[in-house]
C-alpha cells in the first residue's frame, strides 16, 4: 500500500464507503479496505511470509492433487530428484577439483578424477531427464489445475443467493478471486521449484560447512540482503494490488463502456466520449501515481539489497583469501569453495525468487480460497436444515401441485437501505387465478414477485406453497414449477431456439415445443423471418449473428417463460416494449391460462389487468388495496386514480371503461 493510501484510509473504518462529499476524490479512486482481514494481511511484515509458506505450499499441493494425482506425483518426485541431482553434481565437482589440484602426475590425477567425472555426467543427465519429465507433467497438470479451480469458482458464483450480488464487498472479493484462479497455475510449479531449490541449498550448505564452518556464516551474510530485498519487493507489490481492487473494477467498467456495442449508441448521441475519457484519465492518473510510487519503493528496496549483498559478497572473498594466505585451507579447497559459494548464491537466489513467487501467487490464491469461504455464507441454507426448521418434517419434500399460495406478513429490507422494500404484506393467491401487482415505480412489486419466485428470502414473515413455507419444499423442484419472466431479462448470446429452450433446460429441447411457446408469445413469425430462422445466433458480435429490437427480445423472453408449462407464471412487465397487436396477443395467451394455471402479472398498463381475478396495489412496500378491477374502481382509491390517469390519455372515462381487447 502507498503512503498516500495509508493516510487516506487510516481515518476510516475498514469497509467505509459512500459518497465522498468533502473532497474531490471519488470513492473508487481511493485505496479501499473493505475488510479487516485483507488489511491485516497486506500490512503484515516480511517475516510473516515465512510463517505462511508451509500453508501456501500445502494449498498448492492439495489443489494439484485434486486436479491430477499421477502428474502431481511425477512433478513432485522429478523436481525434488532434480534438486538432489544438482547437489550431488556439486559434490562430484568438488571431488573432481580435489583430485585435479592434488599433487602427482597429470595423467594419474585425470584417472583419479574419472569416477567423479562419470558421477558428475550421470547426475547432469539425470537432472536433465527429470527436468524434461517435470516439464511434460506440468504441461498436462497446468490446464487441469486451472480448470478445477475455475470451475469451483463458477460453481460457487452460480449457486450463491441473489442477495450476494447486492453486496459491493462481494464484487470486490470476486474480482480478486478471479485473479486468484490464474495464480493457482503458477503456484503449483513455484511450490515444486521452491522445494527443489531448498533441497539444492541444503546440500550446498552441507558442502560449504564441510570445507569451513565459518564460510556458511559468510555465505548467509552475502546472500540474505538480496533475499530480503526480493521478498520485500514482492510484498509491496501485493499490498498495492490488494488496495486497488475497487479502482481496477472501475477501470474495467470504463473500458467496457467505451468499447462495447451496447453503450456505443448512447455514448454518441449524448456526446459522452470526452466525459468517459476524463473519467478514465482520473482513474488512470491515480493508478499511474500508485504504480510509480510502487516502482520507486521496489527499486529502492532492491538497490539497497543489491548494494549490501555486493559488499557482503566481497567480504566473503576477502575472508576466503585470508584463510588461504593463513594456510587454514588448501588451494583445492579454496577453488571448490569459490564454486560452492557461487552455487550457493545461485541456489539461494533461486530459492528467494521462488519464495517470492509462492508468497505472491499464494496471496492471490488465498484471495480465491478466502472468497470461496466467504461466499459460502451466501449459499442457500442446506435442504435438511430448511426442512427441519419448517414444520418438523425430516427434510424438504417434493412440492405438491399448487392449490394455494399465501404471503403472510412478509417484509424485505435490502442491505444499506433504511426503508423496507416490502413491509408486512399479507395476501393469498389461489390456483388458477390470474392476479396483478400494481403500483408506482419502486413500490415493491418486483421484490415481492422475486420472493414468491424463491429468488429472494423475506427478512420477516413467511411465504407458503400449499400452507407450508417455501423453505419446506425442495427448492429446485419448486423452481421447476415456477416460470419467471423478469423485467430485466437477459439477452443470452445463443440461437433463437436455444434462447427459448433455456426456459426448460431439463427437458428435451423439442422444436415443436419451442415453436408452440414462440407462437404463444407472438414470436414465431418474427423468428422465421430471421436469416437462419430458429438457428439464428442472437449475438451481433459473432459471425452471422443478429440483434433484435427491444420488442422482439421481449417476445423471445415471453416464449422462454411459456415453454415451461409452469403451475405458476410470474410476468414482470412482459409487454413494455411490445407493439399493440403483440401486446394484445400476449395478454390473450395469459388469459388462456386463467382457471387452469396461476399467473402473477406485473404491469403499469392497467388496461391489461382488468381481467385479473384479483389486483393487489402496493405503495411504498405496503399492500394498500386489493380486489377486482370493478371493486377497486368503485372504491375510488389509488388504483382508481392511476387507472383514471391512464384512461384519460386515451380520452376514455374510467367509469365507462376501456373496451376489452378482442377475444380470440
Ligand atoms: N437490489 C436492490 N438493492 C437495493 N435496493 C433495491 C434493490 N432492488 C430494488 N431496490 C429498491 O427496492 C424498492 C422496490 O423496488 P422494486 O424493484 O421491487 O419496485 P417495483 O415496484 O418493481 O418498481 P418498478 O415499477 O419501477 O419496476 C425500490 O425503492 C428500489 O430502489
From TrEMBL:
Q: Report the InterPro entries cross-referenced here.
A: AAA+_ATPase, ABC1_TM_dom, ABC1_TM_sf, ABC_transporter-like_ATP-bd, P-loop_NTPase, Type_1_exporter
Ranges for domain ABC transmembrane type-1: 74-360
Where do Polar residues bias regions lie?
A: 1-11
Q: How does it sit in the membrane?
A: Multi-pass membrane protein
Report whether Nucleotidyltransferase shows up as a keyword of the record: no
Any GO molecular function: ATP hydrolysis activity
Q: Is Ribosomal protein found in the keyword set?
A: no
Q: SMART domains in the record, alphabetically? A: AAA
Q: Which residues form the ABC transporter domain?
A: 407-645
What are the alphabetically sorted keywords of the record? ATP-binding, Membrane, Nucleotide-binding, Transmembrane, Transmembrane helix
* Chief site of localization: membrane
Q: Where in the cell is it found?
A: Cell membrane
From the UniProt entry, list the residue stretches annotated as the region Disordered. 1-24
Under SUPFAM superfamilies, the record lists:
ABC transporter transmembrane region, P-loop containing nucleoside triphosphate hydrolases
GO CC, alphabetical: plasma membrane
Q: State the protein's name.
A: ATP-binding cassette subfamily B protein
Q: Which species is this UniProt entry from?
A: Micromonospora polyrhachis
Amino acid at each position: 500500500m502507498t503512503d498516500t493510501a495509508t493516510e487516506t484510509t487510516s481515518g476510516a473504518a475498514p469497509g467505509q464507503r459512500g459518497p465522498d462529499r468533502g473532497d474531490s476524490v471519488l470513492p473508487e479512486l481511493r485505496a479501499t479496505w473493505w475488510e479487516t482481514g485483507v488489511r491485516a494481511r497486506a500490512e503484515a511484515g516480511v517475516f510473516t511470509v515465512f510463517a505462511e509458506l508451509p500453508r501456501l505450499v500445502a494449498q498448492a499441493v492439495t489443489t494439484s492433487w485434486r486436479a491430477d494425482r499421477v502428474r502431481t506425483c511425477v512433478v513432485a518426485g522429478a523436481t525434488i530428484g532434480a534438486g538432489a541431482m544438482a547437489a550431488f553434481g556439486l559434490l562430484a565437482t568438488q571431488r573432481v577439483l580435489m583430485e585435479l589440484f592434488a599433487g602427482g602426475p597429470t595423467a594419474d590425477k585425470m584417472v583419479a578424477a574419472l569416477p567423479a567425472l562419470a558421477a558428475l555426467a550421470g547426475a547432469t543427465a539425470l537432472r536433465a531427464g527429470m527436468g524434461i519429465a517435470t516439464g511434460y507433467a506440468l504441461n498436462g497438470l497446468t490446464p487441469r489445475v486451472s480448470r478445477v479451480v475455475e470451475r469451483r469458482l463458477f460453481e460457487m458464483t452460480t449457486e450463491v443467493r441473489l442477495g450476494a450480488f447486492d453486496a459491493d464487498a462481494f464484487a470486490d472479493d470476486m474480482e480478486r478471486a478471479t485473479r486468484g484462479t490464474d495464480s493457482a497455475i503458477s503456484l503449483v510449479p513455484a511450490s515444486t521449484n521452491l522445494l527443489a531449490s531448498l533441497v539444492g541449498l541444503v546440500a550446498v550448505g552441507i558442502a560449504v560447512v564441510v570445507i569451513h564452518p565459518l564460510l556458511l556464516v559468510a555465505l548467509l551474510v552475502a546472500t540474505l540482503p538480496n533475499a530480503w530485498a526480493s521478498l520485500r519487493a514482492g510484498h509491496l507489490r501485493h499490498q498495492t494490488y490488494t488496495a486497488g481492487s475497487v479502482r481496477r473494477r472501475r477501470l474495467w467498467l470504463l473500458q467496457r463502456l467505451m468499447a462495447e456495442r451496447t453503450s456505443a449508441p448512447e455514448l454518441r448521441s449524448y456526446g459522452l466520449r470526452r466525459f468517459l475519457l476524463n473519467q478514465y484519465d482520473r482513474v488512470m492518473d491515480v493508478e499511474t501515481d500508485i504504480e510509480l510510487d510502487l516502482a520507486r519503493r521496489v527499486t529502492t528496496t532492491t538497490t539497497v539489497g543489491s548494494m549490501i549483498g555486493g559488499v557482503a559478497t566481497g567480504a566473503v572473498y576477502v575472508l576466503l583469501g585470508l584463510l588461504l594466505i593463513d594456510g587454514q585451507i588448501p588451494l583445492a579447497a579454496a577453488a571448490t569453495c569459490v564454486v560452492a559459494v557461487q552455487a550457493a548464491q545461485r541456489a539461494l537466489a533461486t530459492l528467494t525468487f521462488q519464495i517470492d513467487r509462492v508468497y505472491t501467487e499464494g496471496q492471490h490464491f488465498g484471495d480465491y480460497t478466502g472468497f470461496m469461504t466467504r461466499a459460502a455464507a451466501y449459499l442457500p441454507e442446506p435442504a435438511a436444515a430448511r426442512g427441519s426448521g419448517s414444520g418438523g418434517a425430516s427434510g424438504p419434500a417434493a412440492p405438491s401441485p399448487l392449490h394455494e399460495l399465501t404471503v403472510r406478513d412478509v417484509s424485505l429490507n435490502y442491505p444499506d437501505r433504511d426503508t423496507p422494500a416490502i413491509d408486512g404484506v399479507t395476501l393469498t393467491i389461489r390456483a388458477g387465478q390470474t392476479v396483478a401487482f400494481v403500483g408506482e415505480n419502486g413500490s415493491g412489486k418486483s421484490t415481492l414477485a422475486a420472493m414468491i419466485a424463491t429468488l429472494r428470502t423475506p427478512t420477516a414473515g413467511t411465504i407458503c406453497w400449499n400452507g407450508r413455507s417455501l423453505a419446506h419444499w425442495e427448492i429446485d423442484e419448486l423452481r421447476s414449477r415456477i416460470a419467471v419472466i423478469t423485467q430485466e431479462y437477459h439477452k443470452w448470446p445463443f440461437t433463437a431456439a436455444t434462447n427459448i429452450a433455456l426456459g426448460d433446460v431439463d427437458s428435451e429441447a423439442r422444436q415443436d415445443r419451442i415453436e408452440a411457446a414462440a407462437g404463444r408469445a407472438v414470436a414465431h413469425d418474427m423468428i422465421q423471418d430471421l436469416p437462419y430462422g430458429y438457428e439464428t445466433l442472437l449475438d451481433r458480435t459473432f459471425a452471422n449473428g443478429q440483434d433484435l429490437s427491444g420488442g422482439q427480445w421481449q417476445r423471445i423472453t415471453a416464449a422462454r417463460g411459456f415453454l415451461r408449462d409452469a403451475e405458476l407464471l410470474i410476468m414482470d412487465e412482459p409487454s413494455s416494449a411490445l407493439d399493440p397487436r403483440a401486446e394484445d396477443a400476449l395478454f390473450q395467451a395469459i388469459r388462456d391460462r386463467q382457471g387452469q394455471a396461476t399467473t402473477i402479472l406485473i404491469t403499469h398498463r392497467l388496461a391489461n389487468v382488468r381481467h385479473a381475478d384479483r389486483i393487489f396495489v402496493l405503495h411504498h412496500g405496503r399492500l394498500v388495496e386489493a380486489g377486482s378491477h370493478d371493486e377497486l374502481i368503485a372504491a375510488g382509491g389509488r388504483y382508481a386514480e392511476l387507472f383514471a390517469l391512464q384512461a384519460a390519455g386515451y380520452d376514455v372515462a374510467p367509469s365507462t371503461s376501456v373496451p376489452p381487447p378482442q377475444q380470440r
